[in-house]
Amino acid sequence: MTIDERLERLADRHEALAQSLELLTHEVRELRATAEALVVAVRTDAENIRALARIAEIHEHRLTDLEN
């Protein structure tokens, strides 16, 4: 194998690696956006659950007061 063939092979491998890195970078960005959206959804769900728990507690107190 000549030096020119080696250089050509290295250039091809470099291009393939660069393309792979570009694809991975794009996928990581998409995953990051998805993860951020999930964090927002979980926070919203947690707030809603806390609000429902407060409502349930208030109703429980009202029922207890009515029973007494």
Care to describe what's here?
- The structure is a single chain.
- This protein has one helix spanning 3-67.
- The chain is built from 1 helix and no strands.
- It has 68 residues and is mainly α.
- The N and C termini lie far apart (96 Å).
- The model has no long low-confidence stretch (mean pLDDT 95).
Question: Short description, anyone?
Answer:
The chain has about 70 residues and is mainly alpha-helical.
How many individual β-strands?
Answer: 0
Computed CA radius of gyration, to the nearest angstrom: 29 Å
Give the CA-CA distance, first to last residue: 96 Å
Q: Which structural class matches the secondary elements?
A: mainly alpha
Shape summary? rod-shaped
Summarize the biggest pleated sheet.
none
Poorly predicted regions: none
Spell out the helices and strands N to C.
H
Helix content: over 70%
Please write out the topology.
Layout lengths: L2 H65 L1
Features:
1 helix, mainly alpha, 68 residues
